[in-house]
Design a protein that fits this description.
The structure is a single chain. By secondary structure, the protein is mainly alpha-helical. The protein has helices spanning about 10-15, 25-30, 35-45, 55-65, 70-75, 95-105, 125-130, 145-155, 160-165, 170-180, 195-205, 210-220, 225-230, 255-270, 275-280, 285-295, and strands at about 55, 80-85, 90-95, 235-240, 240, 295-300, 300-305. It is about 50% helix and about 5% strand. The longest helix is centred in the middle third of the chain and has 12 residues, at about 145-155.
């Protein structure tokens, strides 16, 4: 099939509407595909910029569908590249700097709402990020065919990860639907040891924009199980996204014989626990727990054996 040549009027329409309409909507207006519009924009170097190379913040927010409060949060908490300029009533953004920032902060952007081509030609890595976010997290009504698939798979012994991968729904959503339909619970997932490769894979995918449900399905595990494992490894989550670096877990120092001897000596003299814990450099709760594990109680500054009581 011969390619349709772009007319001058079509190119003018493209220039006038990039930033107001997405490539998909421009394509509908022109009777062209989204990829055709994107390629033409790239060839023409179309950007939503003023003559100084900036886009104003108000237009930016409307274009990618974020609120002003989200814009301000990015600016204050994540060093978003927006500057105050004389000719703008709102902050201005250099799109090249924005894309550099977005690559480092891709985890805080809702890519399901960020339509393709909304800001003109996009870097190649954006496509991979959108691909990783292939599951739509917006709540949607369960269809009859989905219910039938759910019933059939449960009858065949499917597990939660298998159901999630086929139905493209979270474990929580599936669990609720099973409850509503009075279905038996799915088969238990066979317990398997976590490997360093599993953790590394999960962290890499989450850092590159994949969501928890996608990664859990890839590993054949539950979302809650994956989250708990990463938390145990020292990672923390901001909403559903993993933070860039794990928190260093502090190992609790073991009790030494000298500490135990000193502790019992002080306890027999009736020293208050808050004073003793301060001298030992441990919390009051830790000291009390140690006393109880060794078979003693300490009440009203009196040490007693549990056996005796």
């Amino acid at each position: 099939m011969r390619r349709k040549t772009w007319t001058e009027d079509e190119e003018i329409f493209l220039f006038d509407n990039v930033g107001k309409l997405t490539f998909k909507k421009i394509g509908i207006e022109l009777g062209r595909s989204e990829s055709s519009v994107a390629n033409k924009a790239k060839i023409l170097g179309v950007k939503i910029l003023d003559n100084q190379g900036f886009i104003d913040g108000e237009t930016f927010c409307e274009t990618i569908g974020i609120s002003r409060s989200t814009f301000e949060y990015w600016r204050k908490a994540h060093n978003f590249p927006a500057k105050k300029r004389k000719d703008f009533k709102y902050l201005a953004i250099d799109l090249d700097k924005f894309w550099n920032w977005a690559k480092k902060n891709k985890k805080i952007i809702n890519w399901t709402k960020f339509e393709t081509g909304a800001l003109g030609v996009e870097p190649r890595w954006v496509r991979e990020v959108r691909k990783n976010n292939r599951y739509n997290r917006n709540k949607k009504v369960w269809e009859l065919d989905e219910d039938e698939i759910l019933k059939r798979m449960i009858a065949k012994g499917a597990t939660y990860p298998e159901l999630s991968k086929v139905l493209r729904r979270s474990h929580g959503s599936i669990r609720r639907r099973i409850y509503d339909l009075y279905l038996p619970p799915p088969a238990r997932t066979e317990k398997k040891r976590w490997t360093e490769e599993d953790v590394a894979y999960a962290v890499d995918k989450l850092r590159n924009g994949a969501d928890l449900m996608t990664v859990a399905a890839d590993l054949g595990r539950s979302e809650s199980g994956l989250r708990e494992k990463l938390i145990r490894e020292g990672y923390t989550f901001n909403k559903r996204m993993i933070n860039s670096e794990p928190k260093i877990k502090k190992k609790k120092p073991r009790w030494t014989e000298d500490e135990l001897s000193y502790m019992f000596e002080k306890l027999q003299k009736g020293v208050a626990l808050n004073i003793l814990s301060s001298e030992l450099g441990r919390t009051e709760k830790t000291v009390r727990t140690k006393i109880e594990r060794m078979g003693y109680t300490y009440q009203n500054r009196k040490l007693a054996s549990k056996r005796a009581s």
